[in-house]
């Protein structure tokens, strides 16, 4: 799904430390890991540059901005329109994530809305995109497991 390069054990340990204390300074991280400050700084810059670290806005919760309703919209697209539909979806502010799928549905679109009327407006907007054939919307009721990578970092760092 991504072109992000694999991490080595030192990268994983660095990210573990950052996960435990996201506000840690480069100096604090270097002391905790027993690495030179320049090494930590260079690795962090590389991890940010190659996409291993998600943008900061990935940490923001839409609920804090008033978007308390979440939904997943599966979208069937006219063949060869996938890129155009993806670009049009990116223009809708309430679309927070789009994933291309194999199977009956072509796209899984995560949207946020203020309320049911707002969700209706958003789904109508999605349906009006040229190339969209059909949508199916499922409300997100409750997140049972938060997005996490800590168990994967533990494995990569050899600490699981």
TrEMBL record:
<dbReference type="InterPro" id="IPR000485">
    <property type="entry name" value="AsnC-type_HTH_dom"/>
</dbReference>
<dbReference type="InterPro" id="IPR019887">
    <property type="entry name" value="Tscrpt_reg_AsnC/Lrp_C"/>
</dbReference>
<keyword id="KW-0804">Transcription</keyword>
<protein>
    <submittedName>
        <fullName>Lrp/AsnC family transcriptional regulator</fullName>
    </submittedName>
</protein>
<dbReference type="InterPro" id="IPR036388">
    <property type="entry name" value="WH-like_DNA-bd_sf"/>
</dbReference>
<keyword id="KW-0805">Transcription regulation</keyword>
<dbReference type="Pfam" id="PF13404">
    <property type="entry name" value="HTH_AsnC-type"/>
</dbReference>
<dbReference type="Pfam" id="PF01037">
    <property type="entry name" value="AsnC_trans_reg"/>
</dbReference>
<keyword id="KW-0238">DNA-binding</keyword>
<dbReference type="GO" id="GO:0043200">
    <property type="term" value="P:response to amino acid"/>
</dbReference>
<dbReference type="InterPro" id="IPR036390">
    <property type="entry name" value="WH_DNA-bd_sf"/>
</dbReference>
<dbReference type="InterPro" id="IPR011008">
    <property type="entry name" value="Dimeric_a/b-barrel"/>
</dbReference>
<feature type="domain" description="HTH asnC-type">
    <location>
        <begin position="7"/>
        <end position="68"/>
    </location>
</feature>
<dbReference type="GO" id="GO:0043565">
    <property type="term" value="F:sequence-specific DNA binding"/>
</dbReference>
<dbReference type="InterPro" id="IPR019888">
    <property type="entry name" value="Tscrpt_reg_AsnC-like"/>
</dbReference>
<dbReference type="GO" id="GO:0005829">
    <property type="term" value="C:cytosol"/>
</dbReference>
